[in-house]
Amino acid sequence: MRIDLLRHGTTGRDGHLDGRTDPPLSDTGWAQFARQTKDGDWPLVVTSPLARARLAAEDYARRSGSALRIETDWSELDFGEWDGRRRSEIAAEPEHADLLNAFYADPAAFSAPGGERWIALQQRVARALDLLLATGLASALVVTHGGAMRAALADLLGWPLQSLWSLRIDPATRIRLEAGRSADGTRWGEIVEIIQP
């Protein structure tokens, strides 16, 4: 199956940890989304329920005639007490700086205060991938977030968590994968193309 993972366009809040905080797409973000989908032919669009992903996905599905599914499992990581705050501000606070560094060094072992653990994100993205692969469709577009995209790549490609930060996934980055299941049922994937905004 061909899966296009598309991070929503920019909200103009670069540098913020917007997990469940849900600012709207800026005009630039809408234009980025339009560019990344203009030549698409996906029979299915799957989207996070967060408005910065969902509204553009709904608009595309309506215009293209694609089927649309809204799935909570594709939501961004919940950053708890850090959610909606600027990363640089958190790093400047002595009581949070070390934990923030530890989180980026090993997200499996550390989470934001009151936030979602990385393993929970991985588990829900794995469920979402199972649902997607079970459709039997040739292709689908998934409109989601940077964290969920990294979790999907880790799952399908077998990348270790520490390697995930080496791939730049700016707003409106689209990553095309071929994905499926091996004979033993294991999910697999390979990157076909990375289209930066």
Give a quick precis of the structure.
The chain has a single domain (2-195), classed as Phosphoglycerate mutase-like (Rossmann fold, 3-Layer(aba) Sandwich).
Characterization of this structure:
The protein is of the alpha/beta class. The chain has a single domain (2-195), classed as Phosphoglycerate mutase-like (Rossmann fold, 3-Layer(aba) Sandwich). The protein is 36% helix and 19% strand. The protein has 6 helices and 6 strands. It has helices at 27-37, 51-64, 87-91, 94-105, 118-133, 146-157; strands spanning 2-7, 44-47, 67-70, 139-144, 174-181, 187-195. Strands 3-2-4-1-5-6 form a 6-stranded mixed beta sheet, sandwiched between helices. The longest helix is centred in the middle third of the chain and has 16 residues, at 118-133. The chain is globular. The mean pLDDT is 95.
Structural class: alpha/beta
The Rg value, from CA coordinates, equals: 16 Å
State the strand order across the main sheet. 3-2-4-1-5-6
What composes the largest sheet? 6 strands, mixed
Q: What would CATH call the architecture?
A: 3-Layer(aba) Sandwich
CATH superfamily: Phosphoglycerate mutase-like
In total, the number of strands is 6
Relative helix content = 25-40%
The first-level CATH class is given as Alpha Beta
CATH topology: Rossmann fold
What would the principal axes of the Cα set say about the shape? globular
Q: Which ranges are low-confidence, i.e. pLDDT below 50, for 5 or more consecutive residues? A: none
How many domains would you count in the coordinates?
1
Query: How many helices?
Result: 6
Secondary-structure element pattern, one letter each: EHEHEHHHEHEE
Strand content: 15-25%
Which oligomeric form is depicted? single chain
**Separation, N- and C-terminal Cα atoms:** 23 Å
Mean pLDDT: 95
